[in-house]
Structure formats: structure tokens, C-alpha cells
């Protein structure tokens, strides 16, 4: 199960967070999302745990808790909706150059 965590203190590293979730069971992978330019944590990340029951227990016990002075939110990650990519005609500004002009 993939878990989404938000509200992480900026100084928390992946090793520390892996150890915290490791208290609930095996951690398959963990990633704290970082800013591309500064390489600083953006305050959220993802944990993947192979055992769903252990993951659910981690969510239940950690969601809304205090972590180094920050209230964190922990929930099952939702799959990103497939928007189909490319131009589907939605949104944006379109100029209509076929208007008739009257002078």
C-alpha cells in the first residue's frame, strides 16, 4: 500500500522517516518530495509498505499526530487521475480569427 504524508517538518530526512514507519512493519520504499531548485523538502512524501494491514495501522496511529512540532496528515495515497495528456480542447484561451468584421 502506498501512503501519502503531508505536514512533514522540513528537516526530517528519509532515513529517519523510514525508521518511524518501520516501527509498524516493513518499508518497501520511501520518498520525501524536494524542490527542484533548492533540493529542500517540500513537506510531504510517500511511503510504500507491502503489508496492507501494517500500512493501515501506521495510517491510523500517525494521522493527525505531532511529529517534531508539526501536525502531520497520513492517508492512503490515491492514484493520480489519467488526464490523457496532450491537448484535449479544455481550458486555455482560444482566439477566433474567423469573425466577420464590419466597418
From TrEMBL:
Residues 1-79 form the RRM domain. InterPro entries: Nucleotide-bd_a/b_plait_sf, RBD_domain_sf, RBM, RRM_dom. It comes from the Bacteria. Pfam families: RRM_1 (PF00076). Residues 83-93 have a biased composition (Gly residues). Residues 75-103 are annotated as: Disordered. GO terms for molecular function: RNA binding. Transmembrane segments: none annotated. PANTHER family: TRANSFORMER-2 SEX-DETERMINING PROTEIN-RELATED (PTHR48034). This is RNA-binding protein. The lineage of its organism: Bacteria, Pseudomonadati, Bacteroidota, Sphingobacteriia, Sphingobacteriales.
